Amino acid sequence: MTTLVERDRGLLWHPYAPLDGPAPYAVVDASGTRLTLESDDGWRGDVVDAMSSWWCAIHGYRHPELDAAVHQQVDRFSHVMFGGLTHEPAVRLAEQLVAMTPDPLRHVFLADSGSVSIEVALKLAVQYQAAHGFPERRGFVGLRGAYHGDTSGAMSVCDPVDGMHALFPVAEQRFLPRPPAARVEDGRIAEPDAEDLRAVAAWTADADRIVAEHADTLAAIVVEPVLQGAGGMYAYRPECVAELRRIADRHGLLLIADEIATGFGRTGTAFAVGHAGVCPDVLCVGKALTGGYVTLAALLCTGDVAEAITRSPQRALLHGPTFMANPLACAVASASLSLLTPERMRRVDEIGVELAGALAKASTLDSVGEVRALGAVGVVALDRPVDVPAVTRAALEHGAWVRPFRNLVYTMPPYVADADDVATIAGAITSAIAEVHG
């Protein structure tokens, strides 16, 4: 009998994997924090999902309230166009987003995915500058180490050298040096010492010089606040985000915060910009927005930005996906946000402390260069590229699903993970690295 994995091989592309690459694992079931997986060699197991399905399934799988939200909306209508129409799930979700984000963010654009929300943000910035009489301001400045998505505009503001998109012809943008790293202790960013502040000052001087040299052609600064995700799970000093806010203001640029990975509590604050105490002009969110049920993202902007668009000749933000504000996605997103209670957010802090303690053992391994945890993010950085198939399988044997990349074995557990789940994840990561890399 042909297995599901055998039917998949050579038929389906998987993310950043060849058609004849390593065989994927088949998902048989998912519930709570656990996945039931099968391999093509007959292995089967129930394991803790250490990845939250690429950081989005923060409430785990088959959550009763999220399931109910989907069922209730299906019984009404699953989709209607958003052109000329509106509906309760979209309005309710937008109200929730405005209520939970910094106060100046008052207007919402609902997009299909995180990458698309970045595309919309870039278009918005160009329209904003044109509305203020600067049509030549069409470029962007990003950070080295950045990752913002796989669509063309988003690719252009990803790291042009160490990112994943050097092959493709995209607009050439300006890039600032990677900000100085933050020290993390017990899942939190440590207060800066004198050396940290000197590093921030030196970085700021470089950043200010680069932006000043090109400001007359720039529309916005695009940044993943405090934590760069696919760029290496790299945590940097929050003071750098505050400096970018000042630099943007000095030169009349918008500050676009990409919180697709960090939003909704992942780094220990509701949004990562909270570590810096600033508000961006544009905020993009996705991934955890629907609790991992349906693809959806959102862009929020300030009243000043929205007013400029309204005063422009076009008067509208020039984007409009077919599935914009899909009712099913909006309904489950609204239910997901309602689950982000203070108790749930405190659990993120607890996970950070637990990860920091439980992963500490990995720092004694010969192959490990660094161990760090920030909020519900735990990272073990090796001194060599990870043998992904071998480490993945070894971690599964020890009870956790991980998806390493580059030299990193990392985890972003669901917020509903308990202490035993976190211990299992950390133990599986440490044991897998020890067995494969020593």
Would you give an account of this structure?
There is one protein chain. By secondary structure, this protein is of the alpha/beta class. The chain has two domains: 4-58 and 341-437, Aspartate Aminotransferase, domain 1 (Alpha-Beta Complex), CATH 3.90.1150.10; 66-339, 3-Layer(aba) Sandwich (Aspartate Aminotransferase, domain 2), CATH 3.40.640.10. It has 13 helices and 18 strands. A hairpin with a 4-residue loop joins strand 15 (368-373) and strand 16 (378-382). The longest helix is centred in the middle third of the chain and has 21 residues, at 194-214. The model has no long low-confidence stretch (mean pLDDT 96).
Fold topology:
Layout: H1 4-8, E1 26-31, E2 34-38, E3 44-49, H2 52-55, H3 64-74, H4 88-100, E4 105-111, H5 114-131, E5 139-143, H6 152-156, E6 174-176, E7 184-185, E8 188-189, H7 194-214, E9 218-223, E10 227-228, E11 234-235, H8 238-251, E12 254-258, E13 282-285, E14 297-302, H9 303-311, H10 327-338, H11 342-359, E15 368-373, E16 378-382, H12 388-397, E17 400-401, E18 408-411, H13 419-436
Parallel strand pairs: 3-17, 5-6, 5-9, 9-12, 12-13
Antiparallel strand pairs: 1-2, 2-3, 4-14, 7-8, 10-11, 13-14, 15-16, 16-18
GO cellular component, one term: cytoplasm
Pfam family, one: Aminotran_3
Binding site for pyridoxal 5'-phosphate: 114-115, 258, 321-322
Protein traits:
438 residues, alpha/beta, Aspartate Aminotransferase, domain 1, Aspartate Aminotransferase, domain 2, 2 domains, 13 helices, 36% helix
